Amino acid sequence: xxxxxNVHKVFAGKLHVLCGIDLEVKKGETVVILGASGSGKSTxxxxxxxxxxxxxxxxxxxxxxxNAGEKNKTxxxxxxxxxxxxxxxxxxxxxxxxxxxxxNIIEGPTTVLGQKKKQAILYxxxxxxxxxxxxxxxxxxxxxxxxxxxxxxxxxxxxMKPKVMLFDEPTSALDPELxxxxxxxxxxxxxEGMTIIAVTHEMHFARDVADRVLIxxxxxxxxxxxxxxIFNNPEKERTRxxxxxIL
Length: 247
What we know:
Blueprint: E1 2-11, E2 15-25, E3 30-35, H1 41-48, E4 56-61, E5 64-67, H2 73-85, E6 86-89, H3 101-111, H4 117-130, H5 146-158, E7 164-168, H6 176-191, E8 195-199, H7 203-208, E9 212-217, E10 220-225, H8 227-232, H9 237-246
Parallel strand pairs: 3-8, 3-9, 6-7, 7-8
Antiparallel strand pairs: 1-2, 1-4, 4-5, 9-10
Helix pairs in contact: 3-4, 3-5, 4-5, 5-6
């Protein structure tokens, strides 16, 4: 579903954040990326849907491949296609404050996909029920807790019917008591077969839900394996040092 080949990212000509990353994620697989702050995790996610332009390498999502550095109209169309196929949830919820919950969710399907408003509303109501927020459909984001806002953000992404969901530390801005309600939604998505790439420090999710865990440090993979291998029998000293700080 996702194939990343020899991807580099250099900022301002000096800061080499990604150093030749390779990654393949199968359909329905849940991959969790762990690593210290500044290791390149979020940059990698942003390169997948071209919110960040890779300096070198190739990104492929659901059969659409784009080489870094190309400049043509076909490439721009391919980037739009990849963005339609990839939902993304950020640390901050990025909801439109002037819109209600329902309006936030139907905005993408009606303006980007050209869905009829009635059809978009019906699906939005299904999604609100799925994330447990049916009663909040007509509220504005300012009236919601952080956990509720993040669940709306997930529903908004799902409204575009993506093939892949990218999670960039979706619980890091939440109070501890609200983390569980977002992680529960992520777990249900994984169990229902969504392809997921998640940057998160929620070890419960990484241990119990991930098919693979990858450790990143200074723009490269340090180690990868099953959750059991990574948490119980890591091979690399750098992995052991990192886990000692967060477990």
